[in-house]
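User: Quick sanity check before I run a bigger batch. Here is a single chain. Can you write out its predicted 3D structure?
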Amino acid sequence: MAGRTARILSREGEAGSCEVGVAAWHGELDVSERETVAELDWRLEGDVLVIALSGKVDLDNADEVRKGIRAIQKEAKGARFAAMDLSGLTYLDSAGLGTFVGLKLDMRGYDRFMVYGLKGQVLELFKNIRLHKILDVKQNWDEVLSSLERTGKA
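Assistant: Done. Predicted structure follows.
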């Protein structure tokens, strides 16, 4: 199954509303003049749903990002595991962190949920508030696969 991209947008420098995000997801809105502040891509790698989140997640778009992830979950059926690639995530504030705490609950339908690719400000923030103790954090995709193989679940 091929993945799709959702752009979380802003209106002339402001945060996008739910209508903007949903319309962009379904291709119903001309987004060429709007600024993309976060992007979600997804693909299935065997029985692993891989969601790549890039850009910035903050108070202005955190709800949109979470809604986009839920939409991906509905479209990507058949995955036993989920992994989120955060290597393209450049900024995260407290509202963005709340998105990840919520994801822990949203991802309960998978046998395992991991995040990987943390770096820079995002990695420091995860460490400072000990979010890496709540979420299953891996360094890279290879470590995700190795972890699944070691537990006999890949």
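Helices lie at 18-25, 62-75, 94-106, 120-128, 141-150.

User: Great, the batch can go ahead then.
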